[in-house]
Amino acid sequence: MLFRLKVDLREMLDPDFLLLENLMHEKLLTDSERQNVEYPKSLQDRNDTLIKFVLDKIHKDETVHIRFARSLSDTDQEHVCNFISHNGGKIFS
Q1: In whole angstroms, what is the distance from residue 27 CA to residue 60 CA?
Q2: Average pLDDT over residues 86-90
Q3: Which terminus of the chain, N or C, has less C-beta within 10 A?
């Protein structure tokens, strides 16, 4: 599902304010990957890089989406979790 939503997520994610550190704690990013995301570039480019790293790991570990959602929630980005869990707003609760 993240793959289908990656275009929208690039505008929604906030890679600052501890998200990258939290993703490192969840073992979803290495320090090298974190630095690559932090490299001075536009917010959308940073998010593209971040999403690519997460998507690359999804194929190897089925718990990635849970840990990614937990990291988003822990950094006050529940709106992004809701967007993902509701398939980009196509599933209503």
Answers
A1: 13
A2: 72
A3: C
Q: Which two tokens stand for residue 62?
A: 């089925």
- pLDDT value at 29 more than 80: yes
In this structure, what token pair is assigned to residue 11? 């505008």
Band (93; pLDDT cuts 50, 70, 90): low
Which fold, 2-89? Death Domain, Fas (1.10.533)
CB 93 within 8 A of CB 7: no
Does residue 78 contact residue 30 with C-beta atoms inside 8 Å?
A: no
CA dihedral 53, 29, 8, 92 (to 10 degrees): 120
Domain residue ranges in the chain? 2-89
